[in-house]
Amino acid sequence: MRALIVAERAEGDDRQRKLAAAVARGLQARGVEAEVSTLVPGTARSLAPYRLVCIGARARGLLGRRLSEGIAPSLAALRNLGGKDVAAWVWAGPLGGEGALKGLMAALEAEGAFIRDFAVVRTEEDAQAFGERLAGLVVG
Q: Alpha helices, DSSP H only, in 1-140?
């Protein structure tokens, strides 16, 4: 089974790539073929080959309650998102993130995605544990 991990591009911040790779490692540790990609506004991509799509975004604002304005258009460009099993995750600092996660899940639901799991991740260890947890959605 295949999974795609898509993380929002954050200019000047390499953290999103590291966290997305950690989610992939968690999935791979449980036998899931995982691919990492970047969520680029306006770039179309087919999701048909993937059993699970994990979409990550950065929590913004002092308490991590907001998302980038580019998230909704980026999600709209993903083909076959409607009806797809999706996991939502946001990366946040030491505070908050839950508000941004709710916003991401609302944007995904507006596109017709089925949210199967979600998390706020702060470290690579959090991200890898989330990936291991997600493997049950793909393998099970």
A: 15-29, 71-76, 98-110, 124-139
Query: Could you tell me the two tokens for 66?
Result: 């907001």
Question: How confident is the model at residue 12, as a pLDDT?
Answer: 65
pTM > 0.70: yes
**E strand intervals along 27-113:** 33-39, 45-46, 52-58, 78-79, 85-91
Strands annotated E in the chain: 2-8, 33-39, 45-46, 52-58, 78-79, 85-91, 114-121
Strand partners, 89: 56, 119
- CATH numeric code, 2-139: 3.40.50.360
